[in-house]
């Protein structure tokens, strides 16, 4: 059996006396997408920030986080900085706060690359930025490379963040609620783009969401999180057709479908 790219064992995260993640264990295989699902405050984002070692110094972290067999929690900070954006990248959920509003988008994508490849020539760097703008289907990149974030739509800004996350060709992509602020049509386009990128770049992905319907479209496996604990893990098909945990069943029942009785209230997870 192939070794996992990401291996997390007994991960616990505390802030003072409050434990937000309790003994979490999960794995992601090379080329696999794992959906991490749970309501707000369940510990999903804290888990992703622990992988990147971006939690504040006040956080207490115990357990094991390994990338390709190497411990991330014991790395010196300088070594960990080299992993961020290169072997592990992250797409954040709100592109307007993640992007610098007074910096041209081409320069922001280029900065993500030069942080790990400082010797790149200006012409080569511009060509690389244009190529990744094309890869994420941004329209007319030659003209728009010098535009600012406010000149793009919400879906286009999310594509810019995806280009920044991918330009160093990471092995693991963490997508933290990447479609939450988008309308349904644009959401579907971003999900389709992520699936294409995963295949063409041979990526592993941790896809974080509170929306089971979204996760069902992209994940190979799903881990359901409640109050800082993983309560159920299974393949996407098995989890949706035969959920075992009461919380998973409540999450599924809380989402309206074409068959939902409009005269009855939705379940509350």
In words, what does this structure look like?
The chain is of the alpha/beta class and 269 residues long. The protein contains eleven helices and ten strands. It is globular.
**And the CATH topology of the domain at 6-97 and 171-253?**
Rossmann fold
Q: Uncertain spans, ≥5 residues at pLDDT below 50?
A: none
Strand content: 15-25%
The coarse silhouette is globular
Under the CATH scheme, which class of the domain at 6-97 and 171-253?
Alpha Beta
Main sheet: strand order: 6-7-8-3-9-10
Please report the distance between the alpha carbons of the first and last residues: 36 Å
Q: What's the β-strand tally?
A: 10
The name of the CATH architecture of the domain at 6-97 and 171-253 is 3-Layer(aba) Sandwich
Tally of separate helices: 11
Percent of residues in helices:
25-40%
So, the CATH homologous superfamily of the domain at 6-97 and 171-253?
Answer: P-loop containing nucleotide triphosphate hydrolases
Write a concise keyword list for the protein shown above.
269 residues; alpha/beta; Rossmann fold; 11 helices; globular
Question: Could you give a short description of this structure?
Answer:
With 269 residues, the protein is α/β, with parallel strands linked by helices.
Secondary structure blueprint with pairings:
Elements: E1 6-15, E2 18-28, E3 33-37, H1 44-51, E4 59-67, E5 70-71, H2 77-83, E6 88-91, H3 95-98, H4 105-114, H5 122-135, H6 141-144, H7 154-166, E7 172-176, H8 184-201, E8 204-209, H9 212-216, E9 221-226, E10 229-235, H10 236-241, H11 246-253
Parallel strand pairs: 3-8, 3-9, 6-7, 7-8
Antiparallel strand pairs: 1-2, 1-4, 4-5, 9-10
